[in-house]
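Quick one, tokens below:
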């Protein structure tokens, strides 16, 4: 192996004209985006502005979001929310995630927009970041759970606003924390704290069974929808 392969991997940098050419946009458009704060500031070396691959990725994201109908103002707000989010390391510390069962999903901003077409607003993005569903990693977004991502997008496809899904997620989080505390107390009181990882699947089974029965009770108590008239019924 060479002296150090990492030394050979130099960071590619672009002058303003080179970056515009790589992104396929006019220089004046690049400068306009920079004025609108759609791009982070370049590295300055005297009077020369140097950009890198992160700037190129951001320009491609802006182009993709414009194609999906977002306005420049909306993209600027999304960018501000995106840049204010926690990174993956901070999120792991905040939620205590060991990544043992949930599978994180890496997404570009435009891929996230495709998951929730028309629902990726600055408010929803900020709520997702605050809730801890999303984190940032460079120019990528990381969703903490493939299961939660799939369920959320499925609910939105059914016509439920993403804002309502996120608010419900916040409320579910509160109940989940209370249930976790309840089972932790039960196990710690009658066995030991060390048994918690081994007995966690039992707690999950109890919660799933109780939730299923609770849904059944609600459905049974709900009035039946009115039956539609038979198609072959003729008026008298």
């Amino acid at each position: 192996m060479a002296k150090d392969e990492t030394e050979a991997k130099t960071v590619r940098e672009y002058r303003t004209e080179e970056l515009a050419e790589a992104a396929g946009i006019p220089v004046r458009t690049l400068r306009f985006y920079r004025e609108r704060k759609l791009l982070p500031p370049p590295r300055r070396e005297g009077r020369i502005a140097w950009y890198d691959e992160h700037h190129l990725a951001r320009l491609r994201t802006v182009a993709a979001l414009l194609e999906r109908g977002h306005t420049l103002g909306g993209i600027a707000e999304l960018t501000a929310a995106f840049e204010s989010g926690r990174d993956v390391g901070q999120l792991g510390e905040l939620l205590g995630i060991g990544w043992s069962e949930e599978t994180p999903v890496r997404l570009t901003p435009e891929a996230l927009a495709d998951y929730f077409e028309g629902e990726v607003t600055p408010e929803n993005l900020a709520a997702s970041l605050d809730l801890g569903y999303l984190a940032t990693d460079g120019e990528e977004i990381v969703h903490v759970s493939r299961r939660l991502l799939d369920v959320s997008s499925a609910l939105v496809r059914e016509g439920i606003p993403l804002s309502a899904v996120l608010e419900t997620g916040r409320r579910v989080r509160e109940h989940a924390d209370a249930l976790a505390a309840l089972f932790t107390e039960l196990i710690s009181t009658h066995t030991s704290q060390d048994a918690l990882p081994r007995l966690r699947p039992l707690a999950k089974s109890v919660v799933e069974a109780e939730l299923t029965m609770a849904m059944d009770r609600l459905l049974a108590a709900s009035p039946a929808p009115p039956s539609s008239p038979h198609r072959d019924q003729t008026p008298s």
